[in-house]
From TrEMBL:
It comes from the Eukaryota. The lineage of its organism: Eukaryota, Metazoa, Porifera, Demospongiae, Heteroscleromorpha. Residues 19-126, 271-383 form the Glyoxalase/fosfomycin resistance/dioxygenase domain. Gene3D superfamilies: 2,3-Dihydroxybiphenyl 1,2-Dioxygenase, domain 1 (3.10.180.10), 3.30.720.110, 3.30.720.120. This is Uncharacterized protein Mb0911c. Signal peptide: none annotated. Pfam families: Glyoxalase.
Length: 405
């Protein structure tokens, strides 16, 4: 049996700009802000003026058309705001493409990194840095494996890029962010006082990626020490899919969807003792929404896709993944899930009201951010974080990284 909830419409207020030169303005939006022109319409095929156009920008829409020439002061009362993951990069690209500063990009009195610039066509844009969407998997290096080697493997096999790394005084990695497949992963060696354990990572947990052509990535992974858990082939449900285990013990699912649009990023996927109960808990605490559900012939959940924090997670019943002779998947270990939120206190309270247990109390941590973690009633760990621009990002280790002491 398959069920799927209706996808919501994309609602909101779409700015409509009457530009002195629509086509050049669209090109500027692409070059400076990373937008993508969606359509350009003319009243007649012979017209040079653009009657209507649209561009995708920052996961939203902006409409443009050619307007009459006017003084810049006519648009002084309009500001086009972008909330982005990396305000400094957007700021630099805009200025490299002819923008001029209206308000310096800096941490403002209200605590956000914010600035304004004017594009070459007279319109004012503001940028600020907001929390990232989705659920990010946080991997803890197993005993005998270094976080540095895990990062190197992901970067080499999947084309990842290290965005920033913090180090403990002893040189081990406290926290690292890796950009991969349009999403990101967090990794760590763990705290210095961490007890050594020989346990491998939690086997029912899978790092899932949709790829355009997974065959070359699959081959590269095997050449770099991965082993096949499920051969890459067209599976019974119609998608090209395979599962492998990397040299650190973590499992990866690589898929080329047959019909659906590929989902960007690295999607946390896990098996749980009671999927129906887990789904309801995620709905209650995180306002999660079920987007797809497949039941097994026995009535268990074989696969469920949920939307959480504008991203996706996959989960299913453990009974569908148990090896013969086993009756338990064991305690989850080696991985947690992190959400960046503007208001983590509200979700924290919901979690506590619904039988979560505290792992790290929610408070301002020594690195300058509000952070806390808890275990849900089925044993998985979730971390909530409110990013603070006051806690500066460190550079990668090979580019003058800074130790935290």
């Amino acid at each position: 049996m398959t069920t799927s909830e209706e996808q919501p419409c994309s609602l909101g207020v779409i700015p409509y700009l009457l530009s002195p030169d629509c086509k050049k303005h669209l090109q500027w939006i692409e070059n400076a802000l990373g937008g993508k022109t969606q359509q350009i319409m003319h009243k007649l095929p012979t017209d040079t003026k653009v009657m209507h156009s649209s561009a995708i920008l920052n996961e939203g829409l902006v409409y443009l058309a050619d307007g009459e020439s006017r003084e810049v002061k006519d648009v002084e009362n309009l500001v086009l705001h972008l909330e982005v993951k990396d305000a400094e990069t957007t700021w630099k690209r805009a200025h490299a493409n002819g923008a001029s500063t209206c308000m310096d990009l800096k941490v403002q009195s209200w605590g956000s990194l914010y600035g304004q610039f004017r594009d070459p066509f007279g319109f004012v844009w503001s940028v600020s840095e907001g929390p990232a969407s989705g659920v990010t998997a946080y991997l803890l290096a197993p005993s005998g494996v270094t976080c540095e080697s895990m990062i190197g493997w992901v970067n080499e096999v999947y084309g990842g890029q290290t965005k920033g790394t913090h180090y403990w005084p002893d040189g081990k990695i406290m926290h690292s962010e890796i950009s991969v497949n349009g999403g990101r992963l967090f990794m760590s060696d763990g705290p210095p006082e961490r007890a050594e354990t020989s346990d491998p990572p939690h086997q029912p947990f899978i790092l899932h990626m949709d790829l355009g052509m997974p065959s070359s990535t699959w081959k590269r992974a095997l050449e770099k020490g991965a082993t096949s858990v499920m051969d890459l082939k067209v599976q019974e449900w119609g998608d090209l899919y395979g599962m492998l285990r990397d040299s650190s013990g973590f499992r990866w699912g690589l898929m080329e969807p047959k019909d659906a649009t590929p989902v960007r990023g690295v999607i946390p996927s896990f098996m749980t003792p009671d999927c129906a109960k887990h789904v309801e808990w995620i709905k209650t605490v995180f306002s999660g929404k079920v987007r797809q559900l497949f039941n097994s012939p026995e009535g268990k959940v074989a696969h469920c896709m949920m939307e959480v924090n504008k991203g996706h997670i996959y989960l299913g019943d453990a009974a569908c993944a148990l090896e013969e002779g086993k009756n338990s998947l064991g305690e989850p270990r080696g991985v947690s899930f992190q959400l960046e939120l503007a208001d983590p206190d509200t979700i924290w309270k919901k979690a506590m009201d619904n039988n979560a247990t505290v792992v790290v109390p929610l408070k301002m941590q020594f690195w300058g951010e509000l952070f806390g973690s808890f275990k849900d009633p089925l044993g998985y760990e979730w971390a909530l974080r409110r990013p603070s621009i006051l806690a500066k990002k460190t550079e990668a280790k090979d580019a003058n990284s800074t130790e935290l002491k």
